[in-house]
Structures are given as structure tokens and as C-alpha cells.
Specification:
Chain lengths: ~325, ~325
Amino acid sequence: VDAVAQDAARDRQNALTKPPGSLGRLEELAVFMAGWQQQAMPQIDMAQALVFAGNHGICAQGVNPFPQEVTAQMVQNFKAGGAAINQLCRTNDAQLSVIDLDLDRPTADFTQGPAMTEADCVAALNAGAAALHPAASVLILGEMGIGNSTVAAALTAAVFGGAVQDWVGRGTGSDDEGLRRKVDAITRGLARHAATPQDGASILMTLGGREQAAICGAVLAARQRRIPVILDGFICTASVAPLFALAPAALDHCLIGHLSVEPGHKRLLDAIGKTAVLDFDMRLGEGSGAALALGILRSALACHSGMATFAEAGVADG
Amino acid sequence: VDAVAQDAARDRQNALTKPPGSLGRLEELAVFMAGWQQQAMPQIDMAQALVFAGNHGICAQGVNPFPQEVTAQMVQNFKAGGAAINQLCRTNDAQLSVIDLDLDRPTADFTQGPAMTEADCVAALNAGAAALHPAASVLILGEMGIGNSTVAAALTAAVFGGAVQDWVGRGTGSDDEGLRRKVDAITRGLARHAATPQDGASILMTLGGREQAAICGAVLAARQRRIPVILDGFICTASVAPLFALAPAALDHCLIGHLSVEPGHKRLLDAIGKTAVLDFDMRLGEGSGAALALGILRSALACHSGMATFAEAGVADG
């Protein structure tokens, strides 16, 4: 991150026609963007949104009340423009691409063996990296995949430890019995792979899924190009937990769009030392919370770039 | 509020291609708007933002480190397009009008007598009501006035009681000594008017200011036309405390844009039974938090109106 650009952005914030600090987190967002865009006046010329979709072998353990066909149905809905993420990208001006990853070839059931082969995992990482538009000013990330709240909880439990049930929530409509099945499947999965090296790459391969790997690939590619990222909720943030395990600084260019209702998200944000931009009782995924936060980011940069300074406006600054 | 339209909006939310409730507070905002716009598919054709400015005799008590001239300077900055509210209205597509109310004729010092005559108060109420555009889909309200965080604290202390210091914060840049002067001035003001009838209209007249009365007038006019309102932070919300004193339901059509850092705001929202849309550590005024919340409201309505239902999209809804 460019500390010189950040300092210049902070100086500008303190010269604008308002009490210093009075725009609160809008000021912090402007300074964050200045650092990653390496300019005192950061801007959003093009916001890219990527939604990755995958299917999961763990569904064989009855962890989700919906059939896996819903993943493809929702991808179709995304492509037809009928989902929440379509409306949120339109309203907040993001260019949306939906990338479905071998939906007819789910990952393997991680209670029985590794979810992905190395080749599958690398292919998904590469698909994620390749999807990034190099001219994006900011990248919004989201996911869709029946069963992937179980995958997310497995990843966070493996990376951060603690009781499995503390990472597990209801996802999309699990009842108490479904919740119990999720905890049980993850517990057996962690035991099954206890002898596997516990580095981030191995955890991603054994417990993750294609859309999780693609999100990792996109986050890494964005980092290489210093493009700031807005992650969505629990599943999206959990997807990059393996990157945090490899190097905590790997997520320094990432904002968290919103705090999900899914209880593991707060725990996860505490573990990675981040605060969400919004807290709106949402739990949809698809990148919806990240796209909503994009609108806030646009307002933050508009104030930063468009406001007059005290000197320009002839206002007494005390 | 139109309960039939609200029920229709709720039914629609539950038919859209997402788990019911998964858009959290975005869903609540859509239902709120449906009720006041009296249609199941509420929309924002035109968002109006009104910022009222006034000057205050209480400044004679040394309650503010800035000279009263700053009010007119900031109004000039609003009119030139250089303030935060200008950028936020542009980004979130609101039509901004700035209305300065007799800036060269401050109200009277309320420690010495009533801040406004009945004629002054009624003129300001009428100016606020007249400023409402009858075709507004939603009204954003804000204020500017050196010294008006003291006025706001006086209004809330008079309406809701409790210790004066619990309503007083640093406003724009008061130090400990300035804080003490604010508490002292309000305490003397309340004592001075203890014999005055404690109804909302009297409190507004004796302790309020022109921009507070104008905000009350705009809120009342909007209510008459069933136009939903987004109030800003502490000072804007405190401005309508006298309306709450007259009839708590008078604020049913109002959202609170953001929770201010000013400590009295949380206490005030608890007293009127409302939760802010955003919590962004802001304390600027000008309607900035309300304009930021407008962007969220636009996203909420875009999802509500633009999403496909499960039936339309051919997605299994369990």
C-alpha cells in the first residue's frame, strides 16, 4: 500500500470544508482507496463484480435442504438479470460477470476424501484470476453454491480452530436437524483430513470448493495489480481464510462489504482483524452486501474528490 | 400508512428469488416505502433534499468556538457546490435546495427569553412546509447553523427530561470548557422557561431556532402528502422532538439516515423508538447521513421491483 498517497489523502480530508473526522468511516474509505490506487484522489472508473458458482459433494451428507440443481437455476437467474445482485450492480454501477465452474461435476464429499484434486483446485484458482478485468478500479466478489455455507464453516474451523458449532449457522434454511448434520459432517471431515498438512493451500484443496478457490485466485490477482476488493459475507470471506493462513497481509487490500447474519462471520472478522462496512441483517450471498457497500464507497470518493477546501471556499476553519 | 400496500410488498418480498428475509433491512425499507407511497412497488422518481440554515442567539453564551459568520459561509459553499452534501446528493441522485432563514437576524438568546416570537416560529414552519416539492418521492432533510448542537440538546432535554449533560456532546469542536458552557447555558435556559407551558409548540418557540422550525414544517407537510422522510443525525432528529411531544405518530413516516457520533443521538433514537439506517461514525450534519442512506434506499427498491420471483425464474424454492 502506498503510504505517501494515503498521507496526501489524509491531509486533503483535513483541509476539506468540514470538521476533521466528521465524515467518519467515509474518510477512512477514501484513505484506504488512495493507498491501493496509489493516488491522493482515488476514483472508480470501472467497478467489476464477479460471482463464482460451484457445486459440492458434501451435499451427500444432507447438509442442505435444497437440491444442487438450484445452483444452476440461480446462475440462470443471474444471467437473465433477475437476482438481487443484478439489481444491486445496476443501482451501484458495477459490471457483473457470473462464472459457473463445472456445475455438473461437483467436488468430492470431503468426509470421504479431498474435495478437490490439485489440478481442479489450480484450475479454479486460475479461472478466478483470469476473470479479473485489469482495468477494474475496484473488484466486488460474490458466490453461489448449494451447500457452500458448510464448506465455508469447514474452512474457517480448519484455519482458525475452535468448536465446529461456533462456525456453523443455518445458511439458507437449515432447521435444527440440518444444523446438527452440518456440524457432524464438518467434524468428520476435519478428522478425515487431520493428517493432511494444515497449510492454507492444503485446507483449500481438501475442504474447499471451486468457487472458493476462484475467489482466492481473484483476490490474489487483484493484489498483484493493487486493485482494492470488496468481499461479501460469511461464505465469501471464509473463502479467503486459506490465504490468511498463508499470509495475513494477503487480505490487506480487501474490505468486507457487510456483516452477515450467519453467526460465524463476526467470529471470522475478529479472527482476521477486519470490520464490515455495513451491518444490514443480510444473509443472501451473491455478492449482494459487497455491491451495496460499493455505493457507500462511491459516496466516500465523491466527497473526497469533489468537496472544496476551506481555502477554496473562503470558510473560516477556526 | 397503507397496510394493504405493505402486505402486498411483504408478499412480493417472500416470492422473490432469495431466501425469505435474506435481504434483511433492505426488505424492511421496501415495505416501509410501500406503505407510505401506497403502492406495492414503491419507487423514487425524484428525491428532494432540503438543507435549512439559521443563526442562534445562544452563541452569546460562548457555546461554540466558531463565529456565526460561518453559517453564511457554509451556505455559500452549499450554493457553490463545494460541501459534502453537494457530493452526496449528486452521487445518490437527490435534488438539493439550500434555504437560509434570516441569517443576519439570529434568534434571541434563550437564557434571556424565548428564542423566537410566535410570528418568527410560524414563518419558519411555513418556509419549511413551502419548500417541499409536492412531487417528491422521498424527502431528505438537513441543517446548518453555528450553535445549533446546543439548541438540539436544549430541545431534547426539554422534551424528554433527564440530566442535561446526557444530551450534550462536543458538536463541532467544543473542548471540555466549551462542553461545560453548553450544559450551563441549557440548564439556565430550561430554568428560565420552567413556567412556560411544556407542549411541543412552546418548547420549539422558546428553545428552538428557525432551521429547527423549518424542519418541523417540512416533516408535517411531507406527512400530509404521505411523502416518506429521511432525517439526518442528532440536530435534525432533535429538531422534530417537539413534534414527537405533540404526537409520537407524527414521525411514523420518518427514517433516521444515520446514527451520529454525538452521544445524545442514541438516547434520542431510543426515546422516539427508531433505529438509524447507517452507523458510520459521522457527525457533520448538512443532511449528509440522510443523503448517504438514500443510496441504500435506492438499492432496496431496486431489489424489490427488479428481482424475479421464483415462479418467473423457474428456481425451486424448496
